[in-house]
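BUG: 3D viewer hangs when loading the predicted structure for this chain

Environment: internal workstation, default settings.
Expected: structure renders.
Actual: progress bar stalls at 90%.

Input used:
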Amino acid sequence: MSLTSEIQIAPLDFDSIRASIKRFLKNQSTLTDYNFEGSTLSLLIDVLAYDAYYHGWYTNFAVNETFLHTAQIRNSVVAAARQIGYVPRSTASALVVADVTVGNVNTSEGSITLPKYTPVTSSLSGNTYTFYTTADYSEFVNGASNVVFTEVELYEGTKLVETFDITTVSNTGTSITLLNQNVDSRTISVIVKPSSGSSTTYNYDRATTAVTVNASSNVYFLFETNNGTYDLQFGDGKLGRNLSVGQQVIVTYLDSRGIEGNGANTFSYGGNALGTLSQTSNVSVVLSNINIPAYGGASRETIDAIKKNAPAIYQTQGRIVTTADARAVILAEVNGIDSVSVWGGEDHDPPTYGKVYISMKPVNAEKFGPTQKDYIKSKILQPKSLPIVSYELLDPDYIYVIVSTQARYNPGSTSLTEEVIRQQVSTAISSYALQYLGQFGSYFRYSQLSSVIDKSDNSIQSNLTTVELEKRVTVNSAVTSYSVEFSNPIYQPESSANVVSLTTKVGNQTFSHRDIVGITRRGCYLMNSNTTINVYRDELGARLLVKSGVGTIDFDSGLVSLTNFSPSAITTNLLNELRIRVIPRDSDLVPTRTQIILIPDDGITVAVVEDLLNRTRTTFGRVTAGGRLGAGSFS
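Structure tokens produced before the viewer hung:
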């Protein structure tokens, strides 16, 4: 009798396996009279079934772990990605771009050097973080007593040095393994000495492609190990220079705390005295751009991200031909990317052929600094592209949605206080923003938000929610014209010729502005009169015109154009940032390619009222004659 007709090998569940074994044994002539349910043989069948059950599942899982798409364990995913030449991104240190001023400089000095691995410290949320330079910076003194190093890049982490004495080598290339998992691979520095006592050193660089590597190239290849640390694989004498017995390898790197360093904005110098003659420690460190604190710190690449990025980068084959290639390369090689948008010049407005546009949002920050953008263009994108293709990196353009909601609840359905319900609603709105917004191409949908509010607590019966849009404009005293693109229609009821749809009366925000005769007036704000934007101020409860015609509104396109506008002394903000709010015409909001929609934590206002008792008294909802929620007029 054929075994295949008696035993089914397809089932993986225990009961089916047991039944298959029992059926096979019953058909054996030597076991015809056995009671398979009440005898000891039943126990043996269970053992056999369990063994087959476990081996079946183990084999299934083991086979799944050999493929990138189905693997679940990080070791397996990393190994599968390595087969197609992909190395997952390491932990990324927070980066800050700062200006370093050195005082008390001896004017006889020729130049001052800020050495590689110069430390500065910063306190953030009660913790101290250390940032280091990763290159030497030099400036000529030219007889000055103060020397300024501009746009110095500082990376967060703990500086670690590991030394390896080479005692054996391999024909396939010698490997050394670093001890820490949180290495920022961008900060790895490798030098090789002929012997431990030698003063001669050779720098080795990381190779990301084998195309330009030959037998004499001083390079190493980086791979993630099974336990999450990193292997440095040196050449075999054909693909990269090989190591020799007796040589010493010194590896210096930063052990990063990843996302924790983001947001650092005040720094103290912690390095040695500078200058051969000066020997000065009078050093101050400030942000090059006060609007850009430390950013880009991130955890190592996740399993899901590896599964997505590895095939995409493999398809590029080390070159950039399409916008999809550019996006794949950025996601694979730029640390600390939260979201990216890429489009060709033919799709730009106006069309610009031969150019690729890229907008990137870093993790826990609003934009990359100019130094980082230049590095991405010149070191990552351009070498993989055709010479005729150029790149332009644009900062994300943020639209802030200001949410005011009145949640109506049934007090008989809950034991919670109104304050607890209010907090739950506020948390629900923040969770909605985190889940559905904050990325390029993410739309704001009013119905989704309203549903989230209703579901935040079982006692909530309904809500009246209004939204306003806010743009934050950086004001420059040398600039008098600004274009503010809301990119969504601004509300203008047909029945009114003088509706107020725009204002800068945000909290206590005001500014100073010259009136028509040149007198500087304080406490000013912008407000529109139909399509014209004017500067006003309040005095004794009356609204006074300071200057008319400083801008216009295009209600259909959402473009606000400011001209002859020179505000100063903006209150409530130290960053020369003016917040402009408008009322949108439509409830759903659509961003452009460079725009990201956010709901800021300080842009959420929640009121909680009893459902029936207050329904007739509330006027919160700004429902227009046309029935659109969210429309109305600024007072």
